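Why does residue order matter? Because the sequence determines the fold. Keep that principle in mind as you read this record.
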Amino acid sequence: MANIKSERCLYRADFKTFIATDPYSILGHLHNSFHGQILTTADEAWLSEIELLQNVLLPWREEESEIIFEYDIPRLGKRIDVVLLLRGLIFCLEFKVGQKDALQADVEQVMDYALDLKNFHRYSHDRIIVPILIPTNYASSSRSFMPSVYNDSIFNPLITGSSGLQGLIEKVLRHADASTPAAIKDWVISPYTPTPTIIEAARSLYENHSVEDITRHEADTVMTDTTIAYILGVINRSKQNGEKSICFVTGVPGAGKTLVGLDVAVKQSYQDDGSFNEDDGAVYLSGNGPLVKVLTEALARDNYKKCRLRGERRNLSDSRREVEKFIQIIHRYRDNMLAKIKNPVVDGKLEIDPDKAVKLQQSGYGEVEHVAIFDEAQRAWTHKRIADYLKRGGTYGNKLKVANFPMSEAAFLIWSLDQREDWATIVCLIGGGQEINTGEAGISEWIAALNDHFPHWKVYISDKLTEPEYAEGRVNELLEHNANVRYSDKLHLGVSLRSFRAERLAAFVHSLLSFNLDAEELYKDVVGHGYPVVLTRSMDRARAWLREQARGTQQTGILISKVSARFKPLAVHVLPQNDDDAAHWFLEDKTDVRSSNYLEEAATEIQVQGLEVDFACVLWDADMRYEDGGWSFWKFNGKTRWIPENNIETRKYMLNAYRVLLTRARQGIVICVPEGNGNKTHEGFLEDPTRQPSFYDGTYRYFKSLGIEEI
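Structure:
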């Protein structure tokens, strides 16, 4: 088999053809298939790998076999150096040409490739996968090799220098009893169904992959590409007709709402040649500061590294500024528009002050973007909250003060886009039952704003927005007199992409929190599909379980509710409520103590909403307790005791906090319900009355009653 051009790799051939082909001819194939600038160091590495492998593979040149160079892994945004398909086994080779040491990050990298193929590459699911790291000057070679303890047919990573590679492959074949030649038909074009983290997805989108490349793309179920196409159609129609329009997109937890928003932002913001679109651009906005910071920093770091590899002179700050053009915190966008209004506000009407703003021909007094994507739109502030905030000039009294502000945040954001003279589109991404802060308005404020102030706007709305979790099921009632409403099932994302192991996790969590009778059966279903949910009363056991589960660069982390108060006795510290700290928690690797993987600092629902880790410990404090057949809610007074929380709205936010925490892990969770401290002093008093066992025992017994496995 000669080389066949494939978008999945740069070169592929059977062993016999590969060995017989001039190395420089193969190098030419790699060049012709590569898109972008090739550095001299890459050329030298490729040639070294080709010449080495032409000798290494000689014993198997007559067998059914295949060699594949630079196989694309869209989910990771990387390529496997070399894949060998030999006797039914899949060898993943990662070369470090000229390197003499085996670094931990390199071992994790090749293990990630193996895990990615096993979990997401259909024709690799039932195959033995052998990851091999090859620092070419490494003086030794792995002597023990065996499938991992996880019983998933992935070998523990092997390490060898170039001189030991042939012998290592021979030993693996003998150990696996792979004596019969066997081809893996169409492996290189196998269906590939990844489920990226939002960080991985954003990186891939930013590098101009399509959503189809980076999501689980089962045409019968996944709706992301259909939803994106519908939104882009609304945008184009608005542009052609000079209209103002708004789309409401709903979805189950983890269905890809943020991914859809980022994809629309990228497609609108960048031309086909990669240049920034100054005319029809879009901005992705979120009130979730940690999410914006983590995404911005991840993309900026990635952009910086790629630019440096291409030999471009660039600072990390330059990359951050480029990313910030289309991913922004919503408060900055809002403040920019507030700076243009007449202040103080007179007669409850917002007006532009021509002395503070320049009116442009197309954008009028609006911002430069035609399209604004508001993620987690249900979290927009009520009129009271934003009015109180602006009255005092922000949280610390050092921002612009606006007395008597007349609108909710939703109404003001529509008003801001309405200032454009030509056309505009708003995309609202909405999660049901995920309001976690006091003063979050839900979707009803958006609808009220459209009805009361912007009846000329075209409204495109998900047909699922009529369900009880959105605006208390009153959407139809609220919109019945609006003539510009069009419903579409294409604006609902009904399939979770968050975890390839947990299609039913969201349903199980809902039933667990709501005491539904099907919770026990849903638990069995979730676990039966390979997503472990386990229970413990020991943080030491929880940490050990997380470390046992994670391989390669898979991420672990501890999660707590923001109302949690008594976690220090368990050697857990709360992550500071600072966006930079959240970025370090999510993005640093296992060598950095700021990383979530150190399992020392716990993130709250505020910091993880919209983000995720692979394996999580949900540390359950005494703020929400199972008592007398239901949840009771408590807040710590910061000193000596817990106080009952009776406010119904606050209780809803506290319940939703645990809903968020229990759906943040892609591959498995351990719930730790502490035992508390029942010890007494010599005088007969409790050592720690704030952590009495009775605060936790009811919750533990409830979880046990559902059949949750205890470790």
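The first strand starts at residue 11 and ends at 13.
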